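Example for tutorial group B:
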């Protein structure tokens, strides 16, 4: 069945060709689309206006894994089928989380800044106790990668439904117990009111001395003042952050000056990595939309992810 789709802001030629191959008709916002596909990263565009003018729309595809930018729009149109890119970027983001973890454990930022030979330092990931916070595709990929190092991995997520490869999976109520004595914590959860500053001073204090933090979720998950204090005091060995609050992180923020804190500018998944994966997700969901099958990356407006 032919579906009428409107793409915002515009379709890349290869995406347009792929959708047409599947039988889609690409139309303007004023031509009664049944589905709206947003390809502009971190942009609301005029999505609200398009949806208000098109009550026949049944499906909206968002381009990012985190959907907090669109939360108000989701609340206004909760009866639509909303899908995001959650899980689509799991491999590059999981890979980056592993890189940040290893860099923090091995003290690679300080060595990159060094101008002399220095002394030995760093510890191995092999055999460590790790906690991964999040229940999506990125968290699952981090678990898979960590397990290659014979680690013990506990996943903390909204429910205790087991995550593949994890040794233990617990609900958020078990977070404090999971953190007790852990050597590594990787954050890959969504930004919601309940996850704000999930990793605070008290919880940092539960970790083993010399633990490391890797955050590829959202900056709001971490109390950055508490993190800076723990890094400065040496309680934490190091941290690797791909996300901060705010973004960009001001040049005056104390985290920049810490030799044991490596910050990357939200580039765990660059445009070059993301575009083909997003197109793959869009094409897969268009096939499912046309066939009336369950869609990938379904968003629950009430939960916010």
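The residue assignment follows.
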């Amino acid at each position: 069945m032919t579906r009428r789709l409107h793409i915002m802001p515009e379709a890349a030629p290869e995406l347009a060709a792929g959708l047409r191959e599947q039988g889609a008709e690409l139309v303007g916002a004023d031509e009664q689309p049944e589905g709206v596909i947003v390809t502009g990263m971190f942009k609301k565009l005029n999505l609200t206006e398009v949806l208000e003018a098109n009550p026949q729309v049944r499906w909206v595809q968002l381009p990012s894994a985190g959907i907090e930018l669109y939360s108000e729009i989701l609340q206004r149109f909760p009866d639509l089928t909303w899908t995001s890119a959650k899980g689509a970027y799991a491999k590059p983001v999981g890979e980056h989380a592993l890189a940040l973890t290893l860099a923090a454990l091995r003290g690679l930022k300080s060595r990159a800044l060094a101008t002399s030979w220095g002394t030995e330092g760093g510890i191995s990931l092999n055999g460590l106790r790790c906690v991964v916070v999040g229940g999506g595709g990125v968290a699952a990929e981090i678990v898979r990668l960590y397990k290659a190092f014979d680690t013990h991995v506990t996943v903390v997520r909204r429910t205790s439904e087991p995550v593949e490869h994890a040794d233990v999976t617990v609900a958020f109520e078990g977070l404090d117990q999971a953190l007790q004595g852990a050597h590594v914590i990787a954050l890959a959860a969504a930004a919601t009111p309940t996850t704000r500053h999930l990793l605070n001073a008290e919880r940092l204090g539960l970790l083993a001395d010399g633990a490391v933090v890797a955050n590829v979720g959202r900056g709001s998950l971490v109390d950055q003042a508490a993190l800076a204090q723990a890094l400065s005091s040496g309680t934490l060995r190091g941290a690797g952050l791909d996300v901060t609050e705010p973004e960009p992180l001001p040049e005056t923020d104390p985290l920049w000056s810490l030799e044991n804190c490596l910050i990357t500018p939200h580039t765990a998944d660059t445009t070059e990595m993301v575009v083909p994966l997003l197109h793959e997700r869009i094409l897969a969901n268009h096939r499912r939309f046309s066939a009336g099958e369950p869609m990938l990356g379904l968003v629950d407006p009430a939960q916010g992810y």
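The chain has two domains: 4-87+271-291, 90-263. Compare this with the pattern of hydrophobic and polar residues in the output above.
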